[in-house]
């Protein structure tokens, strides 16, 4: 069952510098508040730590409260500021409550990394309807719940400081053909296409919108796969190439957010060097 309990970890300690630099150049996201969904593992977890290291206050959202608490503790021990909120993005009430809390405690978000998702490939003839629906609920409806809850904060922040960021996790599957991944690929095509439209709508309001389309990244997504053919394909690809790591995507998000306000990378495809397509 989704949990709506939440835990909070905050600190006002200054973040340690990574080197001899001081001031804005050392902490390009200082003063910003970033919300990361799907933050209890993988790309979301790595991105929370990356953005905190760049100076942002981070809000980590996911269902697993204990994992979020441990993540927030690590960020605090490194000198950062973190707020952990256990929330189910497929539940719009839960997401709105999380957004209200971010507004009340941190003044609102100006960076949203919309990252929660699931990948459940299977041949369409198997009629794995429950898996189809789970992917649609999380990858599409969950994403829209988060967009709806936090976009007003992004628009307000952009009006005040001149920039805000909405970054959505899509996939190379949004563009390429992967048999048995049809439903997952379709949900990610939705994410990419939605992002382009949101950019046209929100760009004039100084909210930058980007879609990140990774190739194969080693995360928990693979552990959710039950289809034997897909598992064999994934295992073979792991032997044939070096997969991306969550940290690779985290650094990409940090790069996007640290760009000058006039610069918006609409879509970023991040591929393992050995993955052809």
Give a verbal description of the structure.
The protein is α/β, with parallel strands linked by helices and 277 residues long. A 7-stranded parallel β-sheet has the order 3-2-1-4-5-6-7, sandwiched between helices. Strand 5 (164-169), helix 5 (182-202) and strand 6 form a beta-alpha-beta unit. It has helices spanning 42-53, 65-77, 92-106, 129-161, 182-202, 228-240, 246-258, and strands at 33-37, 57-62, 82-86, 111-114, 164-169, 207-214, 267-270. It is globular, with a radius of gyration of 18 Å.
What structural keywords apply?
single chain, 277 residues, alpha/beta, seven-stranded parallel β-sheet, 7 helices
> N- to C-terminal separation?
37 Å
SS elements, strand count = 7
Question: What string, H for helix and E for strand, traces the elements in order?
Answer: EHEHEHEHEHEHHE
Query: Spatial order of the strands in the main sheet?
Result: 3-2-1-4-5-6-7
Query: If you average the pLDDT, what whole number results?
Result: 90
* Amount of beta strand: 5-15%
Secondary structure topology:
Elements: E1 33-37, H1 42-53, E2 57-62, H2 65-77, E3 82-86, H3 92-106, E4 111-114, H4 129-161, E5 164-169, H5 182-202, E6 207-214, H6 228-240, H7 246-258, E7 267-270
Helix pairs in contact: 1-7, 3-4, 4-5
Summarize the structure.
Helices cover 43% and strands 14% of the residues. It has helices at residues 42-53, 65-77, 92-106, 129-161, 182-202, 228-240, 246-258, and strands at residues 33-37, 57-62, 82-86, 111-114, 164-169, 207-214, 267-270. Helix 3 runs parallel beside helix 4 (129-161).
């Amino acid at each position: 069952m989704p949990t709506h309990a939440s835990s909070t970890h905050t600190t006002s300690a200054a973040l340690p510098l990574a080197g001899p630099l001081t001031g804005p150049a050392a902490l390009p996201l200082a003063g910003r508040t970033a919300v990361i969904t799907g933050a209890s593992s993988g790309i979301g977890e790595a991105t929370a730590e990356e953005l905190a290291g760049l100076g942002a206050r981070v809000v980590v959202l996911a269902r697993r409260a204990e994992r979020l608490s441990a993540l927030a503790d690590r960020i605090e021990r490194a000198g950062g500021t973190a707020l952990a909120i256990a929330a189910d993005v497929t539940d719009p009430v839960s997401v709105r409550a999380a957004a209200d809390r971010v507004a009340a405690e941190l003044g609102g978000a100006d960076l949203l990394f919309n990252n929660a998702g699931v990948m459940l490939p299977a041949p369409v003839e198997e009629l794995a309807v429950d898996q189809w629906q789970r992917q649609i609920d999380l990858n599409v409806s969950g994403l829209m719940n988060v967009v709806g809850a936090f976009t007003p904060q992004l628009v307000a922040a952009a009006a005040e400081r001149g920039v805000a960021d909405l970054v959505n996790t899509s996939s190379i599957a949004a563009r390429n053909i992967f048999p048995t991944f049809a439903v997952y690929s379709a949900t990610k095509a939705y994410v990419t296409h939605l992002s382009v439209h949101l950019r046209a709508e929100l760009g004039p309001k100084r909210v930058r919108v980007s879609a990140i389309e990774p190739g194969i990244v080693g995360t928990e997504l693979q552990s959710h796969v039950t289809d034997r053919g897909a598992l064999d394909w994934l295992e073979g690809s792991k032997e044939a190439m070096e997969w991306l790591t969550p940290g690779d995507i985290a650094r990409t998000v940090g790069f996007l957010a640290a760009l000058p306000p006039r610069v918006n990378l609409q879509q970023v495809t991040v591929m393992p060097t050995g993955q052809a397509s």
